[in-house]
Amino acid sequence: MSGTNSERELIAEGPAIILVEPQLGENIGMVARAMANFGLAELRLVSPRDGWPSEKARSAASKADHVIDGAQVFDTLEDALRDLNFVYATTARERYGFKPVRSPVTAATTLREKFVGGEKTGIMFGRERWGLTNEEVALADEIVTFPVNPAFASLNIAQAVLLMSYEWMKSGMEDMGRTPFQSLEQRPSTKEQVFGLFEHIEEALDARGYFHPPEKKPKMVDNLRAVLSRRSFTEQEISVFRGVIRSIDRFPRKRPEPLLAGNDSGGEGETSGNDSDT
Amino acid sequence: MSGTNSERELIAEGPAIILVEPQLGENIGMVARAMANFGLAELRLVSPRDGWPSEKARSAASKADHVIDGAQVFDTLEDALRDLNFVYATTARERYGFKPVRSPVTAATTLREKFVGGEKTGIMFGRERWGLTNEEVALADEIVTFPVNPAFASLNIAQAVLLMSYEWMKSGMEDMGRTPFQSLEQRPSTKEQVFGLFEHIEEALDARGYFHPPEKKPKMVDNLRAVLSRRSFTEQEISVFRGVIRSIDRFPRKRPEPLLAGNDSGGEGETSGNDSDT
Prior knowledge:
The structure is a homodimer. The first copy, chain A, is an alpha/beta fold. Helices cover about 45% and strands about 10% of the residues of chain A. Chain A has helices at about 25-35, 55-60, 65-70, 75-80, 105-115, 135, 155-175, 190-205, 215-230, 235-250, 265-275, and strands at about 15-20, 45, 70-75, 85-90, 100, 120-125, 140-145. In chain A, helix 1 (about 25-35) runs parallel beside helix 7, helix 5 (about 105-115) crosses helix 7 and helix 8 (about 190-205) packs across helix 9 (about 215-230). Chain A starts with 15 loop residues before the first strand and ends with a helix. Chains A and B meet through helix 1, strand 5, helix 7, helix 8 and helix 9 of A and helix 1, helix 7, helix 8, helix 9 and helix 10 of B. Chains A, B: GO terms for molecular function: RNA binding; tRNA (cytidine(32)-2'-O)-methyltransferase activity; tRNA (cytidine(32)/uridine(32)-2'-O)-methyltransferase activity.
């Protein structure tokens, strides 16, 4: 369908679109085009299989050059997320976990509210063939999934980006007068700060043989990260948590541990907590 | 994105998708795939340029064979519309006329109402290059157009069909915010469990002389509890936190503490974190 009017304002703002190990340049190009159609411009590529830049991507983008030219490449997903405050992971598969699962409409509304509130946001999309790993999903704040025909649920990556970009644009039109959903007196943490909390706690636990048996460690780490990330802690909360962990980790007790009511149940709870979604 | 489950119900009902003089078989195939993704099945082709059937269409449809096999070919648009009760024409260009112009959401709601009422409906899409003629649009009851970036408004035909099919599927869900699956239900914690977390962490810190100088302890405890309580943790989250604290508190390190990047800043942060809201 035609209708482009290059005289008119080029909208280029909003969440970053993060493609994890995209395989085909054509798909990256179609993603760029879909983004441009609905006013998104920031494309982040995590180790694209066929390298970057890609002429196939540029031609498939049918003139969405501002998106192609502005694309950034990262070696790891963590690097691609560090400066963001709030991130969605897209998935078609059911995940057993604790992250809230949102529809595209709800996700777009949340992204718009955070955008208006000055936060940096992103939406992660997985590989063409098999999407995102659980470890990758664990790095997101929430999950977004699409209402599809159960017997024919496979969306290609460009279609998935198109739908999220379309909902993003709609979310800006439905209520122009929308104000931030909350005036944050505390700055939301960046993903880098969240990853720092992960590493810090995991190291302190690992140093004590907490992750046992070894083959269960990845699952236990997933569960721990799910709990630590689902609340999108503020900078101040993360620094308080880290101060607590650091103090207990670094300094020895000066008196024996008491038998606090609920202490052991807490311990049990931790175990069952880790098992509950294996 | 994967997630197709062929065991599950194949939804195949709703408006007919009518493509007027489609040029590329690949596009017809991608249209069929988009329809199948969102439960549509009736495809009507008005004199496809490269003829029909088309192997290119079948392969681009990635297994939406029920749509490809059921496609009907017509010589004229009039023939393709004869048995329908209500038809939308899609266009990106502004048309001067008396036909109501609707958004995809409104159009999908209208189509759903008529479907439930037993009417036969359809959505017309124009040629890849230049869309529908005014004469063709004149055959429709209403116009539907997409909210796009004014400076980058060109949607390809498969994208346009995808968006309308997606809105059609959403219109059939009682709750637009509904998702196919949900995160695990978690019980909110009781105050007793929250207090247990307070005591547990405070004791572990106190045993290490964390609350120093003594006269500052009440304020430091206040700040700590403020952070620990403002998120209303679930039972499961509290037990995970307690498991973490308990493990670090109770068991000694088996290896020295590394200098984690951000670890000390975490420490600093903790101090300033506690001071920041004194």
